[in-house]
């Protein structure tokens, strides 16, 4: 019995839906089949590791002839399964069905998230601050929304990935705030939720309707600049929301500091200037 029990403890758990049905169909009819009782219990519970030691102690005390105790324990396990099943299903959800998250796709130089060094393939969740050092560039991808953000050298970006995602609801504001430096936003043409995403600076809001654009933020002068490479972006004054303009492909817009307290004239840039800005943060396909 000991060797058989050890084999059961080392077995892989089957899907949580199978266990309860198997228990109800076979376990109640064969209450005294102790091996069956142990196997069904281990297959059903995702808390297997936590209960293994407890189960060993119970088996040491239960005797085969003691039917009332065995029946009591079987009923007790069924109650536990009913109580924990909703929790198990909730824990089994994929990350993209609950809270948003990002993956570090590429990294040149050094970057940190909440003062912890980042590396390629790291997952970023919850809220925090991404900081890049001199001559450092990091690219993070949010697969749920089919977009990516490339953050340039000496930049600071606040991320707030703490709210649940809902297909038919607006995404909570302040998800991405470029505090300092430069970043390049790229959205896949297949992304159907562009209008629900926004990028912030200290004095501006960008409604993501374009697929590719670059933003510069200078907190010392309280300046924000945007250059759109493709698509369209709604450029909005954060303190005066009636002050807004649509920026189209190959256009530039500025706000604050040298550019004035209102969004000024939108400039169409020549190809060589656009190419210069693109080369600052190349977008890898």
Question: What does this molecule look like?
Answer:
- The chain is α+β, with helices and mostly antiparallel strands.
- The chain folds into two domains: 2-91, no CATH class; 96-280, Jelly Rolls (Sandwich), CATH 2.60.120.
- It has six helices and 15 strands.
- The chain has a 15-stranded mixed beta sheet that branches.
- β10 and β11 (204-218) form a beta hairpin.
- α1 packs parallel to α3, α2 packs antiparallel against α3 and α3 (34-44) packs parallel to α5 (67-91).
- The longest helix has 25 residues, at 67-91.
- The termini are far apart.
What does this entry show, briefly?
With 285 residues, the chain is of the alpha+beta class.
Write the layout of secondary structure elements.
Layout: H1 2-9, H2 18-27, H3 34-44, H4 48-61, H5 67-91, E1 102-108, E2 111-113, E3 116-117, E4 123-124, E5 126-132, E6 137-142, E7 147-151, E8 156-161, E9 176-187, E10 198-200, E11 204-218, E12 223-237, E13 244-247, E14 251-255, E15 267-268, H6 271-280
Parallel strand pairs: 9-10
Antiparallel strand pairs: 1-4, 1-6, 2-3, 2-5, 5-8, 6-7, 7-9, 8-9, 9-11, 10-11, 11-12, 12-13, 12-14, 14-15
